[in-house]
């Protein structure tokens, strides 16, 4: 917390001297410097968080190279199109705006692609992060919220997964995210950077107003693919593996609504602004659903029959990924609000029927 100290001032009433008062304006950061830089703010998760920040009264600057993000997904604040590899552009960005925190979403996030092209992932997810941190240091911006992932755990040895679970990624994507968590820890010790790393489980759902939603090209995620079949944009959806050691043989995942992720980011920002310490927490509902359960729920909500093809397992998919979210509840005073699968899929379905991009 910072203060502006205005010094001793005499206090008078109707010209009569009453004494001296010590005048200071408390917490000036909260009053005057609430500009948040959101890298990757035009993407699926980033765009929902930009909207939540604006609704909370923050000033937001989105920085996005629009390689995967959408201009139309940035519903307010300033949008600067650029790449985190562009040092001079970052310099001028930080000179122009006075940021009090950075939320970092700009990264590549396709597991399969990371296996085929690890260089792209290490460059974009790690080297570019180092560029960003260098500029933050130069401009004395020392708060960061980082979008991490359950992929840092690899194949779980114990479910539900707690934050102290062994960190053994099984693909380059997971390794890059873990590398960033480690960099943030080391920068904290050496340079005083304070960060919150949020390990997302399966982000799902859409803005309940359908102003924003998920739109990847290609779309690989289960729920949007299932709903694309329901709306006729796709002919069928593959179920990757029906021989997993789960009740119905399909993989179980912990789906968390994107607006609940947004609330956690606001809570993390409040934590950092309040002088809180480094945190690493899981974000999920602590409840898992199988691929078949997702399809059944989507059929009920859309009132459509969804054509399914059974395929072999997708490489690198653990059978069950469900988190223990008690740390996020405790440390961030956060709890999911759109936690039922029905509600999550309803918001995605509304988006699917009203897609703007
Ligand atoms: N999945 C599937 N068919 C699809 C896409 C995904 O069966 O077309 C399965 C996938 O194998 C995983 C689950 O659905 O078990 C969730 O996958 P998604 O790609 O949505 O998220 P991930 O868990 O990979 O982050």
- CATH homology superfamily of the largest domain: NAD(P)-binding Rossmann-like Domain
Major sheet, described briefly?
7 strands, parallel
- Element string (H = helix, E = strand): EEHEHEEHEHHEHEEHEEEHEEHEEHH
| CATH architecture grouping of the largest domain | 3-Layer(aba) Sandwich
- Low-confidence region ranges: 1-6, 25-31
Strand order of the largest sheet: 5-4-3-6-7-8-13
N-to-C span: 40 Å
Q: Per DSSP, what share of the residues sits in E-state strands of 2 or more residues?
A: 15-25%
CATH top level assignment of the largest domain? Alpha Beta
CA radius of gyration: 22 Å
Share of helical residues = 25-40%
For the residues shown, what is the average pLDDT?
93
Q: Could you say which small molecules are bound to this protein?
A: uridine-5'-diphosphate
Helix/strand structural class = alpha/beta
Overall 3D form: globular
CATH overall fold name of the largest domain: Rossmann fold
How many individual β-strands? 16
Count every helix, treating DSSP H or I runs of 4 or more residues as helices.
11
- Structurally, how many domains make up the residues? 2
Question: Which helices and strands appear, and what pairs or packs with what?
Answer:
Elements: E1 3-13, E2 16-26, H1 28-32, E3 35-39, H2 44-55, E4 59-64, E5 78-81, H3 87-96, E6 99-104, H4 111-116, H5 118-138, E7 143-149, H6 172-191, E8 194-200, E9 202-204, H7 222-231, E10 237-240, E11 252-253, E12 255-257, H8 258-273, E13 279-283, E14 289-290, H9 291-302, E15 308-311, E16 320-321, H10 326-332, H11 341-353
Parallel strand pairs: 3-4, 3-6, 4-5, 6-7, 7-8, 8-13, 9-12, 10-15, 11-16
Antiparallel strand pairs: 1-2, 11-14
Helix pairs in contact: 2-8, 3-5, 5-6, 7-9, 7-11, 9-11
The chain binds uridine-5'-diphosphate.
């Amino acid at each position: 917390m910072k203060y502006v100290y205005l010094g001793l001032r005499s206090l008078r009433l109707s010209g009569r001297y009453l004494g001296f008062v010590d005048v200071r304006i408390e917490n000036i950061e909260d009053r005057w410097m609430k500009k948040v830089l959101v890298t990757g703010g035009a993407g699926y998760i980033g765009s929902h968080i930009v909207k939540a920040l604006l609704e909370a009264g923050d000033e937001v600057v989105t920085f996005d190279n629009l390689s995967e993000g959408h201009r139309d997904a940035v519903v307010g604040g300033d949008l600067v199109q650029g790449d985190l590899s562009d040092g001079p552009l970052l310099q001028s960005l930080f000179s122009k705006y006075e940021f009090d925190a950075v939320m970092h979403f700009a990264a590549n996030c396709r597991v399969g692609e990371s296996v085929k092209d690890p260089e792209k992932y290490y460059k974009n997810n790690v080297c570019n992060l180092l560029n960003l941190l260098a500029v933050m240091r130069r401009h004395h911006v020392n708060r960061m919220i980082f979008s991490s992932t359950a992929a840092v755990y690899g194949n779980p040895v114990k479910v539900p997964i707690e934050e102290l679970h062994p960190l053994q990624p099984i693909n380059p994507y997971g390794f890059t995210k873990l590398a960033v968590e480690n960099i943030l820890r080391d920068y904290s010790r050496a340079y005083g950077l304070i960060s919150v790393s949020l390990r997302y489980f399966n982000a799902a759902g859409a803005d309940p107003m359908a102003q924003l939603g998920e739109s990847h090209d290609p779309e690989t995620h289960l729920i949007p693919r299932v709903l694309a079949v329901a709306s006729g944009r796709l002919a069928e959806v593959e179920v990757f593996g029906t021989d997993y050691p789960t009740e119905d043989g399909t993989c179980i995942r912990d789906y968390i609504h994107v607006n609940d992720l947004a609330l956690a980011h606001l809570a993390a920002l409040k934590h950092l602004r309040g002088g809180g310490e480094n945190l690493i927490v899981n974000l999920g509902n602590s409840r898992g659903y199988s691929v078949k359960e997702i399809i059944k729920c989507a059929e009920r909500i859309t009132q459509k029959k969804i054509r399914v093809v059974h395929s072999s397992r997708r490489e690198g998919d653990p059978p069950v990924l469900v988190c223990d979210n008690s740390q996020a509840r405790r440390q961030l005073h956060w709890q999911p609000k759109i936690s039922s699968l029905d509600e999550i899929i309803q918001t995605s379905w509304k988006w699917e029927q009203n897609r703007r991009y």
